[in-house]
Amino acid sequence: MVGEKMRGGELSAGAIRVTPTAVSPVSRASREIAIARWGWRDWVADLVVSLIRYATRLGYRAASRRNVNRAWAWDRFNPVPYFKHNYATLRKDDRQILMHVRDFFTAHFDGESIQDIKRRRLHGLDIGSGSNLYPALTMLPFCDKITLRDYSPRNVRWMRNEVRQPHRSWKSFWRVLAKSEPYGRLPGGFAQALRTRAVTQHGSIFELHKNHWDIGTMFFVAESLTMERREFDVAVTRFVESLRDGAPFACAFMRNSSGYRVDVRDFPAVAIDELDVQTCLDKVADKVHVHLIELKNSGTPLRDGYGGMIVATGLRRKFSPLK
Predict the structure, then answer these.
(1) Which fold has domain 74-316?
(2) pTM of the predicted model, to two decimals?
(3) 127 bridge partner residues
């Protein structure tokens, strides 16, 4: 995903410069006063302690910089093995996510015909698509256009080819969706609709424009692009705020993930649970519903180092203009 995905990670553009605080120089006069008062040994001991504290601060800052999104080699993320490991077959937990999101979007658009929805020319967003096509599939019947946006150039190229010729495994995912009328009645099937409605785009989740899209998905992205909780919160907020007021959305997260490996490279994660997701979304969305898919109900674990999956749905909060 921007496997980054996602179960894996997404990435941000632009680096944040952190300038370490300089050590205050010890003047000759103050040094002589300290030596006269405490003696050489005490002065040297005090100096050593100060240097150790400063080195510790520098080490902490350096470690913190290694934890942030921009520090990871997202351009080396390999979507091919990621797809094979995650989506070559339909997993039990992904099936549950599909059903949950399918029913949410179907209920949201209940009462509108396919023709009515088509006349609205809705524009959907899947952020951090990576090598996961099924978030876009959940929006397909309701959108005139869907943007698949990812920061990794390799993921963008992979998704561009996948949209033109979807892998046969996506048929299993679509069959789950097609049990609901809006999906089952999609003219021409999902493959044809993808080719005509989906567009790929290179870009960061941190640079999304506000109030732009009419419906959105973000699967296994915000918790899988950093080790810093602050960046997780920012990513979730940027995604929801990129949608228009009242727009429906669906998100999925790895619960308490400790990071993941793609091919021969490790990628980060921040450990979050369903309460963290609820708290973060409640700041920018209404009618938020968070559902936990426990590991014991997920089938064979996808990998080590996570505690199930979380799916969340809601509506982008409508903000009244200031008077």
Answers:
(1) Rossmann fold (3.40.50)
(2) 0.80
(3) 149
